[in-house]
Amino acid sequence: MKRATAQHVAIEAGVSKWTVIRAFTPGSSITEVSKAKVLAAAEKLNYRPNLLARSLATNLTHQVAVLVDDFGNPHKLPFLETLTAALQAKGLVAILVNINDHYNHIHAILNAEQRQVDAIILLGTAFRDETLNDRKLGGGSAPMFVLARDSQIEGVPAVSCDTDVAIAEIGKHLLERGYHRPGFMCGPRTLSTALGRRRNFKEFWRRERDTDLLEIAADRYSVDAGAEAARRYLEKTPATDRVDVLMCENDALAFGALDVIRSEFKLRVPEDIAVVGFDNAAFAASPSYGLTTYEQPVSEMVDAVIAMLLGQREKITVNIRGRLVVRAST
Amino acid sequence: MKRATAQHVAIEAGVSKWTVIRAFTPGSSITEVSKAKVLAAAEKLNYRPNLLARSLATNLTHQVAVLVDDFGNPHKLPFLETLTAALQAKGLVAILVNINDHYNHIHAILNAEQRQVDAIILLGTAFRDETLNDRKLGGGSAPMFVLARDSQIEGVPAVSCDTDVAIAEIGKHLLERGYHRPGFMCGPRTLSTALGRRRNFKEFWRRERDTDLLEIAADRYSVDAGAEAARRYLEKTPATDRVDVLMCENDALAFGALDVIRSEFKLRVPEDIAVVGFDNAAFAASPSYGLTTYEQPVSEMVDAVIAMLLGQREKITVNIRGRLVVRAST
DNA sequence: ATCTCGTTTGCTACCGGTAGCAAAAACTAT
DNA sequence: ATAGTTTTTGCTACCGGTAGCAAACGAGAT
Q: For the domain with range A60-160+298-321, which CATH number is right: 3.40.50.1820, 3.40.50.720, 3.40.50.2300, 1.10.730.10?
């Protein structure tokens, strides 16, 4: 059975199709009588306005593309949950785009724009800033936002956790606990993502203790990559030379590191090596991990991007303060 | 700068807009010369066809709504990853819909249909079958599919892991290990979702050992709910009366149960209580959990739904065989 | 040079809505 | 009852493509 259109309902109700449309357009001028007639006819024919046609005419799809390249990070799931819920509350809907080897950022952005999305959100994706300056993207029409990651890109505001404050809090906590040989596990070195947290942490130790920061790079931002990097480090470094606290750029890396430290090398956490993460992913609270970490203010961050893309807030980069969560790993 | 349309390119290239369209329609009749002219003009104006307009005319959006109500289950993430990647490989895109207290299935389905999606996939959502028989959904136009869950719904094929085989394999393994006081932790009792695995497991013990199955119901399918349910059970049951193996309907529940069993009640796994999950979520492999579980054939399942929705495969319920993964928890 | 035949191009009508103007209807005031 | 005002309804044009027919074109045969 073919779907009913406004025209069909119009005939059924004995009015013009524009009157039908008005019955479905809040705040438009229509008598109660006509509206009731139309609604009855619509109900009977199971009519619902075609949002595609509406979008074509209004130039608004109420669709937002959400680009994710980092499904290995379990914290993406609560982020997606919060984001989709908040979008839906505003009548928007998320197109989830998986950035991977077969489908890169350029591809994704161009396709999203062809679909006329109202905005594009880069959800913590590990692209290089240069990527977005690609000529092919010239005249891109959909406003872009970077969520949960820094961005130096001209005209692309970022909403993320305030790294300065976060690192200061974490550092203070670690000093109080008496750690003095710090290490930092970051993601792929080539990415500017890493910069903020790593640079801050490095400067913190230089300033406070005139200490150098040992840096360990993981291949990706995932549990496996974190395990792999930790393994490489522990294998090649004799016990006496090791760091006494390892800060990981995110919880995913920290989980992997913890697994290897405890299970493969039989080291005690935090006595032999303390570990700190970043995100406060669900499993960080599990007694199996008990990870000290820094909670990203997910809801506030999501609300901020959405306010921006709705034009209810100035489109500029903001950093929102998170919260240190101390657990057994330090 | 307003986005260029076929008309603009036509003027630039000195042809009609239909010739422009043909240059972008593979297999249509156009000379190399015209095509080159059009492509050059298009390049210059940064033209890309408007997929919205195309969808309106062709009645195909290449969009699939994916409904998820279960973000508390970490295994949803790899599922989403696989699903989005597979859809994108076929030129489709996923609209991720978050089903929650403010946005129920009916809502989601109606909205998806208004957006003219090509299909709706219910990704392991815990709806009641009756929901989908709601009159409001009468004449629904988008084909629906249930993924990673059973479905008894008329006309809605399900693609899931073969429960019969899975439970038989798990049961056999548990018998070999000598367990004889089985328990089963399921999700909300009111949902038929639970039925398959629970019923099978129950029948298995009845048949093989003439043993009754102890059943524990969790409120939701999440780590927290699993922890909560395990806590309630262990608190009220003296050590001597407890089950010696607890099968959980999915890994999320099992993680919660493991945390409580080990950390709160200081019991040994598997010596005091063995635990089995279902899904083979990423953390099941972590040495912190070491969970024996049953791996769902995610890729095969995803491929099967996609083949169905593309019409390349008969639209009937299929069960695909998974794989038992034995780890330290049994 | 003329006639085919097949290819290429342009055209009308349409997908299902929206915007905003103009005509019609209903209401108010005199 | 009539004129003036406001509300409601219908209309044309349009959003940017697609479908499929008809005209124009070009090459080969006569």
A: 3.40.50.2300
Q: What are phi and psi of A220, to 5 degrees?
A: -140, 180
Closest CA to A113 of B54, B3, B43, B42: B3
Alpha carbon B9 to chain centroid distance? 43
| Residue A157 pLDDT | 93
CA–CA dist B265, B274 (Å, integer): 14
**Mean pLDDT for the stretch of residues B166-182:** 96
> Is any atom of nucleic acid chain D found less than 7 Å from the CB of residue B17?
yes
B95 neighbors A63 (Cβ within 8 angstroms): yes
Q: How many other C-beta atoms can be found within 10 angstroms of the C-beta atom of residue A311?
A: 9
Q: Give Cα A200 to chain centroid, integer Å.
A: 21
With CA atoms as reference, report the closest residue to B250 among B268, B282, B226, B271: B226
Residue B160's nearest CA partner among B314, B305, B308, B311 is B305
B42-61: pLDDT as tens digits: 999 999 999 999 999 999 99
Q: Compute the distance between CA of residue A75 and CA of residue A1 in angstroms, rounded to an integer.
A: 43
Domain boundary assignment for chain B? 6-49, 58-161+298-322, 163-295
Mean pLDDT of A53-78: 96
Contact B98 A77 (CB under 8 A): no
What three-state secondary structure class fits A110? helix
For residues A300-310, give the mean pLDDT.
Answer: 97
In what helix (H) or strand (E) does residue B176 lie, and over which residues does it extend?
A: helix B163-176
Residue A3: is its pLDDT beyond 90?
no
Q: What is the mean pLDDT of residues B1-14?
A: 89
Q: What is the mean pLDDT of residues A51-80?
A: 96
pLDDT at A139 over 80: no
Residue among A45, A48, A52, A123 with most chain B CBs within 10 A, to mutate: A52
A6-49 placed in CATH 3.90.1720.10: no
Residue B191: band (very low, low, confident or very high) from pLDDT cuts 50, 70, 90: low
The distance in angstroms from the start CA to the end CA of chain A is: 64
Chain B closest CA to A149's CA: distance in Å? Answer: 20
What DSSP character marks residue A127?
-
Strand partners, B294: B324
* CB distance A19 to A28 below 8 Å: no
Distance in angstroms, CA of A51 to C1' of D17? 16
Please report where in the chains the tokens 């990704």 appear, as a residue. B123
Question: Which H helix or E strand runs over A95?
Answer: strand A93-98
Query: What does the pLDDT read at residue A1?
Result: 60
A311: left (phi over 0), alpha (psi -120 to 50) or beta: left
What span, in angstroms and rounded, lies between the C-alpha atoms of B74 and B328? 20
